[in-house]
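$ fold --in a.seq
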Amino acid sequence: MTMTKPQTAPFGSWKSPITSDLIVSETIKLGGATLDGEDIYWLEGRPSEGGRYVLVRRTSDGKVADVTPAPFNVRTRVHEYGGAAFLIADRTIYFSNFADQRLYQQTPGSQPKPLTQEANRSYADYILDKARNRLIGVCEDQSNPDREPVNTLASVDLASGEVQVLVSGSDFYSSPRLSPDGSQLAWFSWNHPNMPWDSTWLWVASIQDDGSIGEASCIAGGEEESVSNPEWSPDGKLYFVSDRNNWWNLYRRESDGTIEPLCEMEAEFTFPHWVFGISTYTFASAKRLICTYTQQGSWYLASLDTKTKQLQPLEMPYTDIGSLQATADRLVFVAGSPTEPTAVVQMDWESGQQQILKRASNLEIDSGYLSVPEAIAFPTENNQTAYAWFYPPQNKDYTAPEGELPPLLVKSHGGPTAATSVTFNLKIQYWTSRGFGYLDVNYGGSTGYGRNYRQRLKNHWGIVDVNDCANAAKYLADTGRVDGDRLAITGGSAGGYTTLAALTFRDTFKAGASHYGVSDLEALAKETHKFESRYLDGLVGQYPQQQAIYKERSPIYHTERLSCPVIFFQGLEDKIVPPNQAEKMVESLKSKGLPVAYVPFEGEQHGFRRSENIKRALDGEFYFYSRVFGFEPADEIDPVEIMNLD
């Protein structure tokens, strides 16, 4: 057997089988795994269908078919980020349709029928109140353009479609959950200026004979506590997650009203509540709780004995696990790993056998083209430590010229209250298989490392995150793993702000890319949607009282300090970060004479969902760096117009 000798070629110019066409044509998004009797459902986000979210059903005989026909798009606009846009109960499907935001009702094989009227209302996170023939969920009323939307808990009558407000008065609500006997309702709420990972309250109330909600009791939460994920066990006890001891751990409310921790660990048992429907634990029985938790950036699956409180890890080949749904005989979840695409997985309790029901990608890629991430901890400001995942260049067909170090692309994740994922990501492999190093940074403020780590960003957005991204890149350059003269930074949304701030206020990076990123904090504070309208109070300071700080940290006001090329990608229908944020920055850089490129996308909102735009953004950014860093791509790429480039 003869082995092909790798070719010698500069980093960045390696030819890779992982193309943008392959990524957009062969990759979908998966989520929302749900059990209904013997049937299993999940959501598929399909770039090839304009980003449409389709509900898919797998029957007990293994047949898989779409449930929601085109043009229906299972997606809600509550909080703009949505989530929990469907419910399946007793072989009946209820879902929000993105185009009109009405609730629809459907049985498999039939056409969806509208349940609610067109009334400028959106719905999310609904449950079935079977005894009263209604849904209970979060309702966001946008009917009055002169005020911010009004959020409530509301019921929708399944016979008439009538909507009735059940709970109101707070700015935000989430996770209405009925007790097994239908007599009590639990939920959590929060108010401006807090975000749900800062301060929330968990409530319980009895349901009256007429269906109204009785006087509510607050059983957990407060100004310095984030509670979430309430769920009733089969025997009627209320469980939830709280960070009262720094870490998002599991708790239970006992029959006498006391709150009891279940397994105190330096681990997080939930995600930040950006979207509805987060399911990080579920009940196989009253005595057995199945949960997932994260430590040092990786997620694990475990079984918890609710009586002895003993936690038993379950061996899994996955590092990212969520969307848990269990019965007495099986578990369904969504998971992935650095070398395995996200998949819907079914596990049989008796045999322990696992079965992959659907993969986000069926591509079979030789491991010789795949970079496996390495967890790194690096020193940063104030004698602290921050964390990242480093993907070195990897392509079995190539080696670099002796003495050459690879360019590095630093990824600043969005949120900023979020975290990186080490699930197999073809977009990352696109870069590493062409000869780039890729560094995914969990800067201070990221989740998964406890409340104290999360609070590092309080009043310091644009400082802590920027320092950590810059120090992460310097750490790799100083240790001789990457080329310190070819450091680039990229990010979307909040990560786009960190990118622009790093390029403006630091001299570490030589180029960068902003994907729908923030350049003007003051404009963001004035123009963004309700959910995030007071987010900056905790990240930057109160507005307008501290307007000077907003301007001080906004790249748009300090373009004289920016001295490297930048490319911008922007959806023209983005309501979270409006297009004028990018356009003002582009004009400023253009007038200054700096190399700058602007790629707008018609019909896109916050994040790109259409395959042609995902492809254009990926290839366009790579083309931009090829011109800036002076290497020749192996593939023909549609050029991007770069203004002021000699």
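$ fold --in b.seq
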Amino acid sequence: MSSHQPNPPVDSLVLYKVRPARVVSVGEKIEIELDGGQSKRVRAKDVELLHPGPLRDLSELAPQEGELNEAWELLEGGETTLKDLAELAFNAFTPATAWAAWQGVAEGLTFSGTPGAIQARSRELVERDRAERAAKAAAARDWQAFLERMAAASPAPEDAPRLDEVERLALGRTDRSRVLEALGYPQTAESAHRALIRVGCWERDHNPHPVRCSAPRADPDLPVLEVPEEERLDLTHLPTFAIDDEGNQDPDDALSLEGERLWVHVADVAALVAPDSEIEREARARGANLYLPEDTVTMLPVAVTERLGLGLQPISPALSFGITCGEQGDLLEVEVHRTWVRVERLTYEAVQQRLEMPPFAAMRRITSRFRARRMASGASELALPEVSIRVVAGRVIIRPLPRLESRALVTDAMLMAGEGAARLCLDQGIAIPFATQAAPDNGKQPTDLAGMFARRRSFKPTRLMAEPGPHSGLGLKLYTRATSPLRRYSDLLVHQQIRAHLTGCECLSSEQVTARVAEAEAAAVSIRRAERLSNQHWKLIALGSNPGWRGEAVVVGREDRKAVLLLPELAMEARVRMRDEAALNDRLRVALNEVDIPGLTLSLRVLG
């Protein structure tokens, strides 16, 4: 109300903000009564007169039947006052009709302005706003109906775009979801995952982790050259064996024996994948194969494995390391050749049955000497449980991996090749990524599960460095990874450098090697994380499908008043709060309470 206008009389109807009020008394300040009986003292400029009264009670402001729309049609484009509008629309000017008329103005559709100057808006503006308001009201009804369907866990086909928004959050592609916020869920990928399962958009066993980790989800689709015709040492006369787990699809190493020389043959991937080729750049961007229980995504086109995997063709090209090992386990002689080999594929279990037979008995004697040297140099040997996890036709198969001497034989042979490759490259000045690892803080070799668990957690990460250095965990003063070029980029890079040396081509510089390794290792971080989370996911799916599960757990640590348990049959960690303090290495019987698939956790209870 303007300061030059008189104060409103007692019992008049005034507008206070957007609410009707009755003037109770007038003095230095005006006392008003609001609907609900609340009293308030305000300044004259805080209210605007709607009707002089008398208004005895705000309950008199009952809804009015009138012709407000017809009044607008008569006044369209013109100006009027609240008094004239009330009389035109309701045939009377009373506190009740004044309030009813003002509500029509305040709605802002057909009228606008102040009580003293009301404009009747043009038909064009009214029809535009009416359409916008109708659309907005329809959208609000649609949104409310959607939320009700979500609460009932029964989405309709038309809800797909809104659920896509939730899915983007569940996959880590955005950090906000209006839908999730409206449903009262936290704005996290885990909560989005939980919501999608609840409404049936995702199956309970849906694995989002590879996509969430930005791991590649398809093999490279790139053309692959034929194996070049070039001079190779013919070793096809040597019985040669690629020894792997059953079901392995990318055999990239094999063993044979020639007198006292142990041959480690590795798929000659550098023969098809040249530095800076399109395939090499793609492999570098991926860093490694992605091994999931449900799938494998390769860093190289599948055709590379088909042509070079050892034993997948009658005769295979290889990069072969001929190693002579002394009685003290040291490498007396290392030679490297491009070769042809004829490979038979065997499983670890099959070789385990033939360890006392030629040529495996002799191979085992050689690798055992090498292993003894590594152990004397402080190598860590951790006999922690390991499992193989596969998903076949929707069924999770978890198989413990027994600690076989055949597996140790192959492992040591591969390490011999890695040491031999590192020595060759160092001697010849070939730049490669040397694999190094600092010693753990605790140098003792544990023999119990809790000790091995703690030692593994104390390991420093393996680092790929341009300068050579010891690898503490392996007990080697010099080492590089050279036996998995089909599935790991750094191994491929070592092969490319050795191949360049053997063929008289220019090798990459130390700076170039370092830059390429850095790029590949950054990508491999996503791969390793996706694998780790996916393995945990499928273990929990397997447990969740067996709610009555009971098993053995070993106490391997304590954290925050909880016992850290290792479940040997699943190679899985869990934490449980216990009433009684348990000693390290205690074996407990535990039962499953529940699993939280989106949260990647499980709850156990101790029996007895």
